[in-house]
Amino acid sequence: MSAEATNPGAPLRKRSRPRIDLRRLGRVALLGPASRGRLPDAIGHVAEAHRAHCPDADLTVLRRAYLLAESSHRGQMRKSGEPYITHPLAVTLILAELGAETTTLTASLLHDTVEDTEVTLAQVREEFGDEVCYLVDGVTKLEKVDYGAAAEPETFRKMLVATGNDVRVMSIKLADRLHNMRTLGVMRPEKQARIAKVTRDVLIPLAERLGVQALKTELEDLVFAILHPEEYEHTRSLIAASEGAQDPLADIAESVRTTLREAGVTAEVLIRPRHFVSVHRVRMKRGELRGTDFGRLLVLVGEDADCYAVLGELHTCFTPVISEFKDFIAAPKFNLYQSLHTAVVGPEGAVAEVLIRTHRMHKVAEAGVVALGNPYTADGSTAPHQAEPVDGERGDPTRPGWLSRLLDWQESATDPDTFWTTLRADLAQDREITVFRTDGGTLGLPAGASCVDAAYAQYGDEAHGSIGARVNGRLATLSTVLNDGDTVQPLLAQDASSGPSPEWLDHVRTPAARIAITGWLDAHPDGAQGPHGRPAEPRPQLQPADDAAKGRGREGSRAASVAVDTPGVPVRLAGCCTPVPPDDIIGCTVRGGGVTVHRTECPAVVRTRAIGRAAVGARWNDTGDWSDTADYRVTLVAESFGRPRLLADLTEAIATADAAIVAATVEPPSEQRVRHTYTLQLPDAAGLPGLMRAMRDVPGVYDVSRAQQPATTV
Questions:
Q1: Which of 81, 369, 446, 509 has the greatest number of C-beta atoms within 10 Å?
Q2: Which H or E run includes 584?
Q3: Which positions are catalytic?
Q4: What pLDDT does 713 receive?
Q5: Cα–Cα distance between 171 and 455 in angstroms, integer?
Q6: Neighbours of 230 (CB within 10 A)
Q7: CB of 339 within 8 A of CB of 137?
Q8: Burial of 610 (0-12, 13-18, 19+ CB in 10 A)
Q9: Distance (Å, whole) CA 78 – CA 93
């Protein structure tokens, strides 16, 4: 497969300058440098493209970089037959056309010198400074002789760490891979496939995350041609056939121009052809392509407000397809992308997709981080490289959550295979959400992340003791999936021995959380794991020494503290709501003429009235001091997240309050929550509020309430 055959984007891509002739540049390079003070002819294209974006750029440093690169690579040839110098020249031209600043272009000219020639990093630093040296070192591959099979993953690890300090490292790498992919046809098919797969799994997702759409789309097409040649050829034939037919987008574009002109909105309306992979995706989605599916309309305006003015005119004068509207200006994508997306129905019924953005947004959408210049200075100008800005805060707006997370988890993935596998899985997640912490900070997480991910992102290894979370103020399980804009507060157990459950691995999306959980589980292999990673607590049916009959014997003394409006009838306290002083109470008549006393809010009262039984007034005999009353029985329900020793801690809290457990049940965990029901004998009814507070203070318990169960008999 020739290099031209692996360049499917060429027929659709409109360039202001023709593609550089590599063979001609190779001949120029072999002729040697130009006369002193003049730019060598070989970098004339680079200078022209650079001056188009940076008119005042000083090209002296580019001349010196070219002379060093040309002399050091002299005599080396590429497998395609051109002199090797044509490769750094082509990489530099790609970056120059995207608007890269002079330092990036200097480093791109030298990016292979340390790797493939006798030039050393010390020489680069002495001649061009620390900043260029850092960029060149960042893209220099590690030697296979030193790293063996781990050379490729460790090289990417090295580049990603360098990118964390300066995103221009990855800009150079992406341009380098693009030119190599353009000329991949000279390689063996199996090597083409291997390089294409790495490009698909790693480089293309990185280009997407860094917002460099111009590089991403062409890389996608090149990979498509190599890995899916039949689908690629079919898509190529469809595009070729559409070029010979009348373009329905042209008529809609003219209608849009007329509409905006009459509305007084200054705008440039262009037809933007879709690249091969985009056409293929539309065909897979719709089955049959429409005439307008081979491109989209691009409307460029001067100010942000003009974008919404254009949108208003389009939705007023054309029929909008509401489901296609997306506002990426008010809510930019995590890769800096901003645009309004909509679709309208044209005069003849054809549907056209429309992108609306400012010229500045368009530059960032195409070039991403490349268009930002040096991100470590406030004005984007060149400044000496420093790995960490002095104020501790990165000025780089492209250091988003995904990159910070990547740099964090890669430190834990010491094994190259683990790193390589995890990197591909991480980059496969193509959407980002932002959630808020209760302290006002934010967490960047991949779409689909759960409370487990948020806990590890905020607390690191301390999240091993997570027992739940509050999401938007409400209690939630750790498996709860978070949405963009949620406020999340992970809840941690105070028990330092708590650990994660294997079930958590079913809910995590971030590599850092997965690596931390797996590491903990590997270090604690013994014992059956309960709902939170430790041996499960037994769930007993407890019965104290004083049996139920003894408890019933005390019921008479408790009932004697109640007076009802029907004197002389048997009185008992309800077991469903277990009233104690000073609860508001009411009596309900039962069969045989007796009265059962309930708390007024007990559901049994409503049911009793519904079947026609009369309510009876009831009150406690002593409304003042309850410290001298007889023993009282009460049923409490404790809602908690499961954790080791929870049952022991709860029973200890109950015993400390001098309450005796008459009976207790612990229901099986449901979604990592555990429900405990205790029937307790209290020596002093006045101690009930303190007992409930003590139970709520037990780590993992989030609520304690009085029982509201249906009575078995009334």
A1: 369
A2: none
A3: 115-116
A4: 34
A5: 33
A6: 7
A7: no
A8: exposed
A9: 18
